[in-house]
Amino acid sequence: MLVIASEPKAKRGNPGNEARNIWIATLCSRWQIYIVTKHMTQTNPNIKAEPLRVFLVDIVDKSTKKEILEDRMRELDNLVQTYGGVVILEKYQKKDRPDPKTYVGKGKLEEIIDDMLRMNANLLIVGNALKPAQIYQINEKLRQVSEEHGLKEKMQARDRIDLILKIFEKNATSGESRLQIELAAINHMGPRIYGMGMELSKQGGAASGGGAGATRGAGETNTEVMRRHLKEKIRKIEKKLIEYERMRKLHRDARKKKGMPTVGIVGYTNAGKSSLLNGLTKKGVLAENKLFATLGTNVGNMYVITDPVTGRGKEILLNDTIGFIRDLPPKLIKSFSSTLEDSIESEVLLHVIDASDPYIEERISVVHEILEEIWAHQPKILVFNKIDLIDEERLVQLQEMFADNEKVFTSVKDGIGLGELRQLLVRYV
Questions:
Q1: By three-state DSSP, how is residue 382 classified?
Q2: Between the ranges 108-112, 324-328, 340-344, where is the mean pLDDT highest?
Q3: Do 260-426 and 15-228 have the same topology in CATH?
Q4: Residue 37 — φ and ψ, nearest 5°?
Q5: How far apart are alpha carbons 156 and 257 in whole angstroms?
Q6: Model confidence over 403-414: pLDDT tens digits?
Q7: Is 357 in a helix, a strand, or coil?
Q8: What is the pTM of this model?
Q9: Which residues have CB under 8 Å from 419's CB, separation 6+?
């Protein structure tokens, strides 16, 4: 577990140097706030700590439709559950725009904290990405109230990206994926650490009676040390990831010499990518009904008939990698560039889509935007999976909606459409 946002505990009477955590992100201009109170009971048997009880806060654009708002909250609920909890309570309230200092406003933050105390909640999760100063101020208030009430387990705050990174950390199995998550965490946490150091520096100058010309506080000095440490850490991680990339390129070059084409499998998280890989190759990889079950790259071989008369064919390679989700910061995507490289270099992409998802167009748009960001411009086949969960009317509707796209409708669970997909792939490989 990577811990990088902490300062040494201060001596009693000098709260300016106590250990603090701060976090990161960006916001838009016109917003309304959708505040949700949640309890989350930790269900992971390997975790011995007290149950996590979570208060969720989300922010959406003022023009956002109610159904999209509800979808965002369901997705956030799923992220919480994937992390290992059960959501049991919610309530919401609207506001014109987020507060630049505390995100929800001073008065609303006090109300939230009162509710957290009343319900014994210990974690505030923001369903968006916050600026370093915002998460710092929220955590400062939570720390102060926790101390005032003598809480054994201090209340803390995290944003949506923090939660995703925690899930990544939990599900990472390979050395490469662990390195990528460590790099993503440093990129996410770094600006917060620098901001924290400047804040501690100001407090240190004020405590010593100095003004703008006061000597630098311990916070700034510690931040400079941490900045150099993180810079060196990033360099070492990137050097190791380059080695993984080099090995991947050698493998790709070897496959090309053998005339073995590659097909990449991409899609929104939990759309059924790993299940499709299993259905086509009998690979037997983990395929769970949860977000981000796959973080590394799973590879399987499949033989397709290219000449029906002679029965001759060729072997192709399928790559399944990390699923996508809305509002992923570019730096987070870049951290997984080595894993995504196999998909970028493939001859064709299978874009797996959950046909039963009521927000199917938004999911497709998110995936296409991310593919553009990573320069994946090769041909794409839309694979509408889970058609066993929709009726005939919905199936016809989807066929009409995507009439201009190369597509196939499948149910990996029932083995429907896999033969058609194999035949379609022959045209590309």
A1: strand
A2: 108-112
A3: yes
A4: -95, 130
A5: 54
A6: 999 999 999 999
A7: coil
A8: 0.75
A9: none
Q: Where are the domains of the chain?
A: 15-228, 260-426
- pLDDT tens per residue, range 43-89: 444 544 556 788 888 877 777 788 888 888 888 888 877 887 655 45
Distance between CA 325 and CA 267 in Å, rounded? Answer: 9
- CATH homologous superfamily of 260-426 equals P-loop containing nucleotide triphosphate hydrolases (3.40.50.300)
Q: Which residues pair with 354 in a beta bridge?
A: 385
Q: In this structure, is the dihedral angle defined by the CA atoms of residues 246, 250, 255 and 256, taken in order, positive or negative?
A: positive
Q: With H, G, I as helix, E, B as strand and everything else as coil, classify residue 122.
A: coil
pLDDT, tens digit, for every residue of 243-256?
A: 988 887 888 788 77
C-alpha 92/C-alpha 285 separation (Å) is: 40
Instruction: Report the alpha-carbon distance of residue 193 to residue 3 in Å, rounded.
Output: 11
Query: Tokens 């957290």 appear where?
Result: 116
Give 93-110 pLDDT, tens digit per residue: 566 778 889 888 888 899
Class of domain 15-228: alpha beta
Among the listed residues 194, 263, 196, 230, the one whose alpha carbon sits nearest the alpha carbon of residue 428? 263
* Residues recorded for the chain: 429
Compute CA distances 311 → 25, 100, 130, 200, whole Å: 56, 66, 58, 72
278 versus 92: the higher-pLDDT residue is 278
